[in-house]
Fold this sequence. Notes:
The complex is a heterodimer. Chain A has helices at residues 56-63, 86-92, 109-115, 125-130, 134-152, 168-181, 198-215, 226-232, 250-254, 257-264, and strands spanning 5-6, 12-13, 16-27, 30-41, 45-49, 71-76, 79-80, 94-97, 186-190, 218-222, 235-240, 243-248.
Amino acid sequence: MTQTTTTPDGRQIGGVLMDLRNITLRFGGVTAIKDISFDIREGEIRAIIGPNGAGKSSMLNVISGFYVPQEGEIWFKGHRRGPMKPYEVARLGIARTFQNIALFDGMSVLDNIMTGRLNMMKAPIWSQALWWGRAEREEVENREQVEKIIDFLEIQNIRKTPVGRLPYGLKKRVELARALAAEPKILLLDEPMAGMNVEEKEDMCRFILDVNDEFGTTIALIEHDMGVVMDLSDRVVVMDYGRKIGDGTPDEVRNNPEVISAYLGVEHA
Amino acid sequence: MQNAEAAEAGLQSIPALLARNAERFGNRPAYREKEFGIWQSWTWAEAATEIRDLALGFLVLGLNRGDHVAIIGRNRPAHYWAMVAAQMCGAVPVPLYQDAVADEMAYVLDHCGARFVVCGDQEQVDKVLEVGARAPSVQHIVYTDKRGMRKYDHSHMNALADVQAEGRAAGQRLGHELDARIAALGYDDTCVMLYTSGTTGKPKGVVLSNRNIIETGRNTAAFDHLTEREEVLAYLPMAWVGDFIFSVGQAYWAGFTVNCPEGAHTMMTDLREIGPTYFFAPPRVFEGQLTSVMIRMEDASRFKRWLFRHFMEVARRVGPALLDGKPVGGLDRLRYALGNLLVYGPLKNTLGYSRIRVGYTAGEAIGPEIFDFYRSLGINLKQLYGQTEASVFITQQPDGQVRSDTVGVPSPGVELKIAENGEVFYRSPGTFVEYYNNPDSTASTKDAEGWVATGDAGFFEEATGHLRIIDRAKDVGRMADGRMFAPKYVENKLKFYPNILEAVVFGAGRDMCTAFVNIDLTAVGNWAERNNIAYASYQELAGHPQVYATIKEHVEAVNESIAQDPMLSGCQISRFLVLHKELDPDDGEMTRTRKVRRNIIAEKYADLIAALYDGRDTVSTRTEVTYEDGRKGEIRAVLKIEDARTFPTRTMQKVAAE
Lengths: 269, 658
């Protein structure tokens, strides 16, 4: 827990934040994840890669607590974690974005991001209905935080636009904003660049790095774009058919023969 | 006489005006900026404190008298403060275009020898660092937005807020030095240096003195009765002389409020929230707004469309006359009032023009329909004619004498004369001091008596005394048979069609005129959508046969209108093509202020021009393009060339220029 390393670009990476030990996940007869162990350290950008069907999204769902593995242990901040309700996960400081955008289409960008702060609002329902006293104070405080995130992600111009009217790349950014609004310790990104054009990808990369740098948020991400993964992440886990076949820095992974044969070298010829 | 007044009152510099404003308008807002979704404001007294702290901070960092301080960033109060703070220290502020690429920046930074650079954000800092050794004079970078800056080597770098904090701490130690420097500022000392974008060659640094700026500010504030109650929106590039005059010169003279939008993308929302009383925009902003209104009306219900059309017809008939104070019948007044209630009022509110008292447009010719549209709504939109070397104002239109085809009468204090070849010359209190480190250019532009060549050809209308501009003097040429060739005159007529974004006309020394046309993706794209025309790219849409047919109609309509003018009838377009890419400043085809660079285009597209003149029907070409991040790519295309009908010259009375 005490070891700290500094990356070449000057970021501090701390001790282990989350430790996954011998995780096995089955759906009926299908084993999605087979005995995988790895850890995520505080302040790092950790990527999970692998071909289609390798079990990446399942892994992310295990981390987020949505799936409960049949075997194995999850340690978070030095405590073993049992099965949890989604809101309990959120309170622990884990936030995520989805591969298929999951926003409220009819609501404005601002309102969507505000939902990310639901856990911080404690005012009783009558107070919220009347918008008086504690509810008003909380709303103002939370709006302030949300505005900081809006400024950070440069989406001021669409603040009041209904999400349904936005192009894909911007929706992804709004989803990131909502996840950030929860002020997470650890942020899970499920294919943040999927379906984006080069410019949108570049923007997204910059935002992910800035989030990590500015807020010190630990980030675990799944991504298909190898260039992006190799540039962004500090360490990479490689999965194939539910097994872990590689784990290390981007360079180590890139030169791992098993990884090359499974993924990088013979990608769906 | 009034000059002497200003000088006697000790108002010989922008910092002196600031001190006066802090005293006289202490509690009135000087700056507003929308940040985190809320308009933050600073009174003149608060702004004076902020600026003083920053100036003290600059002294701590060792800013000397006569140093140049480059400022690169979007319109933010902090950047205006940096300019005035630099002036307080006896240094010269040099605002630069924030969208300039590192190469352009290197030239300017090196040319002015800037020691300090104030950058808006990380992006600008990166560019200055990239320039590095090519501008060896740069010693210190100050940045406004701290985001992403933590990892940088800070041995020669500071956040602006930290510089202010240091300045505040050093207030007692350096206060006297700063006061002495402010007191030493003279009427003829340099106020600001602005680089002209230049349609040809390298940019030139135009040196404007305190006299230039303050007298221009005072004269023009009086011309339009500007008071401390005006609200302006500062959204045009800070490196452009107009922004300096409106947001600093006039604002400090009259003491009005400068509002900075949240960012370039939010400009339209912010415009609506602020509702400026005094507003400037280049024609393309008005064009863009009108296009978006029309597109949205197309999608409205039938009743709304009828209502809109009916009352816009009333407005067209009655509006301009009402605005000019001409007599209008009682029934028409009633109709207009009803229209105002139902259509004009809500429309103006949507556009953000509810409170406009004075609006200006300049830079390019504005289409008569566009101009009349805004005027008929009751918006006092006027034209002015100016340039950087004149501290903007050369001519402007007085209230009640506004027309779309003239640029008005000489501004107060400006003398005008027209040379033999039609070129317009002026002399004014705002006339620039010199081009920095470029005595040759200074001498060739400004003669010993202070007359400056505008480079534009024009004439005075005898009946009204208003100036009319035809074209750039050097672009006005002759065709092979000696007929007059004025490309911009034709291009402007073409650009008045919403479908046409840009046009470039060729024909000097040739026997006929030809043109490149750029379609407007917003207008044409919307038309395609409504007509179920599928397209995958700009290039495909531009080459679509129906688009060609529409453009051909426009070209022929323009030919017909040109044929009415015996002097310019040779400029009718015989052949044209629709370009496969938008002309772009990043490719050097236009200036940053979006004026076409004829020579560069002629050189780059020589193959296309050749095809226009050798009678071919199609031409295949490759074009190099530069992406926003500086990488290069290539577009290949086969372009169709279309013939257009020309019309015989109407032999009417001679009405044109002398």
